[in-house]
Prior knowledge:
Number of strands: 0
Oligomer: single chain
Helix content: 55-70%
Largest sheet: none
Structural class: mainly alpha
Distance between the termini: 75 Å
Strand content: under 5%
Radius of gyration: 23 Å
Order of helices and strands: HHHHHHHHHH
Amino acid sequence: MGVMASPPRSSAAPPTRPPTARDRARAEITAEIMTAAREQLAEVGPGSLSLRAIAREVGMVSSAIYRYVPSRDALLTRLIIEAYDAIGAAAEDAQASVAAASAPEQFRAVWRAIRAWALTNPHQYALIYGSPVPGYRAPVDTVAPATRLPQVLLNILAAAGADGTIAAPPVVSEAAQRTLDPMVESVPDLDADRSALVAAITTWAALFGAISFELFGHIHNVVASEPESRAAFFDAQIDLVARLVGL
């Protein structure tokens, strides 16, 4: 009697379990907690974020909130990841919307989209690009979301270098290139020329310097306060930085 062959194993992923009523209830309560946390972030800032106050806001006893958020730092991490993902998505969507356009036009579209997001979400912007929260140390979970935006800028510069759009590639010393060893070692799949990386980081720093100066009031009585004046000044900064990196 022959041995019966085993049926071939399916490579298909097992079906996803539909969410239960408990899952849906938990998701709804978590969403309420996050909404209350954003409101408190706007009112008192990240350093004074209080789980007890958030629990009162959503109508639960203070001890119950720990079933959904284990600590204040865990809640801060969720808010930080949420903000990084939102600003990263804004950059990615802006580039995708002008994907057929030239590199300078993509660069301009991304900068404008990030400024628009920051002006609309100033407290979330301040959380990730403002002063560090005392006593809080961001975990590794925040790294990938934080890289979404600079990756967009790097992609634009890399593509411009590949197709010759960059007329005069920036000259970066070997000493400056070596300063990026920690990043290159921590992201082994990073496939980019180090000069392009320095240029991308420079544009990243310039972008948030320009936005922070505007958002935190540093150009008050320096640049006219009308929205169209602020937008025109920002556009001038875009063009200056684009020329600086050879676009």
